[in-house]
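Next comes one such specimen:
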Amino acid sequence: MDLKRLRTFVAVTELGTVSKAALYLRISQPALSRQISDLEEGLGLRLFDRLGRRLILTAEGEQFLQDCRSALRHIDSLGERAERLHRRQSKVSCRRSCRNSLNVFPTCA
């Protein structure tokens, strides 16, 4: 199971059909269907009931959706946190290099 499949699963549930999700994710419908099938097979769960072109979440699918959303929110927040830390580190590096460049001439005591 990887993040791509989790995001694909969430997109399908939110958009309701494979065709809409495929357009949104910019992948082919067969590729998206294969990802969902692989996810279900890997988990050993049936996440959807298929009614024509519509996909209806099973009870297991509903629970998995909640867990996926929670996990993806957490992962997104980790990315944001890493970005903030990187900006803070860049500012510290800039301050140090600016200070070093200002101390070109030794001070006389």
